[in-house]
Amino acid sequence: AVLLHDPKGGEARFDWLHSDTLIEDARGRLLARDRFQVTGAQLARGLPGVTGNWKAQAGFYVVAERAERLLPAMREALSGTGVYGGVSLLPNQSGAWARMLAVDAAALKSALFAAWSAARETLTGSAPMPRRK
Question: Average pLDDT of 111-130?
Answer without folding.
Answer: 93
